[in-house]
Amino acid sequence: MSSEANAVWNECLRVIKQHVNEQSFSTWFKPINPVRLEGSTLTIQVPSQFFYEWLEDNYVQVLKLAIKSTLGPNGRLEYAVVVDKGNSQNQPYVVSFPQGNSASSPKKSNTALAESKSPFDMQSLDSEMLLQSNLNPNYTFSTYIEGDCNRLARSAGFAVATKPGVTSFNPLMVYGGVGLGKTHLVQAIGNEIKNGPDDKFVLYVSSEKFVNQFMDAIKDGNVKSFTNFYMQVDVLIIDDIQFLAGKDRTQEMFFHIFNHLHQNKKQIIMTSDCPPKDLKGLEERLLSRFKWGLTADLQMPDFETRVAIIRRKMQSEGIFIPDDVVEYLAYTVDTNVRELEGVLISLIAHASLNRVDIDLTLAKTIMKNIVKDIENEVGIDFIQKTVSEYFDIKTEDLKAKTRKKEIVTARQVAMYFSKEFTNHSLKSIGYHFGGRDHSTVIHAVQTVNDLMDTDTAFRNSVNDLKKKFKMRSY
């Protein structure tokens, strides 16, 4: 930029600052860059077409005042607008807008400044939400159990909470199945930022609520207030972004909000039930932006993480629970955190109402009423199902003729446990594994024992499975 253009624009900013509030000044004028000064015409660059239109609709009078005060009665203002081409490379091009509808032409007859009031100053947009972050104070990093299933997402989240908008994790997209802790993690980030020293405004909103607010804003003719509100947020956390699918007008609005926040180094955090590449019904230009930062997944918690969750929950409730009950629950409920917490609540309720101690018998009784597929005995079918899931193969492969190494190993492990945990004869066990004879079962058992003596990782896998079967056979 030329030094003359820079000097003129700084003087314009001095005038503008006297007529707009601090939040509006930071949102709508700080991002502007002066480009050149030719005679009495100042050209400024704004980050988007939407940004240009917003200035023209809401701040034309204050811009006109600033230009006239600085460049005199013949002063004019032109815009160089960065226009997004929608490509994944994020390479914009610039289009110049002359004075046709610019701040230099008498577009509006009002003599008063036409500054658009911010929803920070007025109660027009969902008043219950104004300046409220909508965060659950119980969702913090201290209550979020870390494990292999969530370590990357948690580490990235903490980095974002420490330096929102500054790290390369912007946006941060956290995805995973139901009940795996997405909402807990992103709200923990929000609470950490909100309680930090920088006095940032953090807003958590579900995509469903975002859509409903936008629809209400259209109906009430209040879209400007809606937009201005979201563009002044420091940290935007939007949950279940996949629900924007198919809602074209809402996606268009979110696109502009996203661009504005990102260009102004405001932090954007989103959750989804799948990675961006699998999201359907969203515009490509949105999906490309979701990939700018970091995408981290949450997986089903492993056994150790489930144990830690149970113990932390019981500790917070001031309730003692025996180790054998902890292990039983951790092995039995292996789906998601939400279901596990539901089981714990039910267990606590039954113990309290019936005035009994929490023990394995009570836990098994509770589980029978909650988990439909729980088994009282360990049978060959259950062993085959459990082993195949553990080794990530099909149950049918255990009975097939294939000699692939990974399948042979899984088959031998399943035979080993069938001998240890069932009363079936060697011949019967072989029959259940595709009609194999008893000598194959004997060889499988011996092979597993030998590998356990020489291979630590294999021994740990077998012991892990053994605990699961023991829990079922109690």
Describe the structure.
By secondary structure, the chain is α/β, with parallel strands linked by helices. It starts with a helix and ends with a helix. It has a five-stranded parallel beta sheet with strand order 6-7-8-5-9, sandwiched between helices. It has a four-stranded mixed beta sheet with strand order 1-2-3-4. 34% of the residues are buried. It contains 19 helices and nine strands. It folds into four domains: 1-81, DnaA, N-terminal domain (GMP Synthetase, Chain A, domain 3), CATH 3.30.300; 150-297, Rossmann fold (3-Layer(aba) Sandwich), CATH 3.40.50; 303-372, Helicase, Ruva Protein, domain 3 (Orthogonal Bundle), CATH 1.10.8; 380-471, DnaA protein, C-terminal DNA-binding domain (Chromosomal Replication Initiator Protein Dnaa, Chain: A). Residues 379-448 form the Chromosomal replication initiator DnaA C-terminal domain. InterPro entries: AAA+_ATPase, Chromosome_initiator_DnaA, Chromosome_initiator_DnaA-like, Chromosome_initiator_DnaA_CS, DnaA_C, DnaA_dom, DnaA_N_dom, DnaA_N_sf. Oligomerizes as a right-handed, spiral filament on DNA at oriC.
